Amino acid sequence: MPDELENGLAHGGDRPDTKNLHRDVVDIIARRVLTGEYRENETIPGLENLAEQLGTSRTTVREAVRVLSAKGFVDSRRRAGTRVNPRSQWNLLDRDVLAWLLDENIAHDISEDLLVLRRIIEPSAAMLAAQNASARQLAEIEDAFHRMRASLPDDIDGCCQADVDFHMALLAASGNAFLEQLAHTIRSALLVTFELTTRLAQSHSETLWLHEALVENVRKRDATAAGATMTDLLAKAERDLGSGAPEA
């Protein structure tokens, strides 16, 4: 069996673990796309060819292609084969896609694009939250902040999860149904971005202070201050992201 699929072997035996093998095939094809081995708008090898290359069955490859098609990576059509889609068609908010991009050191660019989106949306959402948050929603925002603070500096993963919860709660507290739906859509992307910026940050004290200030702004119903604080928080995230920018 090819080295690429060694991780698909079941523990305690020499037979492939079907579930893990399927996952491995999805990962391998995706990474071949990301590295340019399979180029945009080009047709990838057929099922039989790929199955032979990877030492697996046509059925496993077919299911892997279906998964990648659902994520926007490829377009598979009968008789026409499977073509690699342009990146503009990839589901960049999908957790697997984000993980692949992160592994291939492309997540930095995606995080910058997400920051642009957040600068458009989140200051206004923070202002709305200050105007509309219920007592329960304020408690959820506060709880997320306290979990962030308690997790640092040792538990970065816990901090990032709490940070996502903080921003999800803030968007939900805006009282706008579309912003609340957007929160669920971008959750995975936010987590990847927070994992990146939190690890790049030289100090977490300013980030914590800005989150705490946002809690106070919402509690005091100060919409103007909430919008300004969120703008400052996003500027801090941009500086942290810039500190880890790849060299030109």
Automatic annotation (TrEMBL):
Keyword S-adenosyl-L-methionine: no
Sorted UniProt keywords: DNA-binding, Transcription, Transcription regulation
Cited Pfam families: FCD (PF07729), GntR (PF00392)
Keyword Transcription: yes
Occurrences of domain HTH gntR-type (ranges): 19-87
GO molecular function terms attached to this record: DNA binding; DNA-binding transcription factor activity
Domain of life: Bacteria
Protein name from the UniProt record: FadR family transcriptional regulator
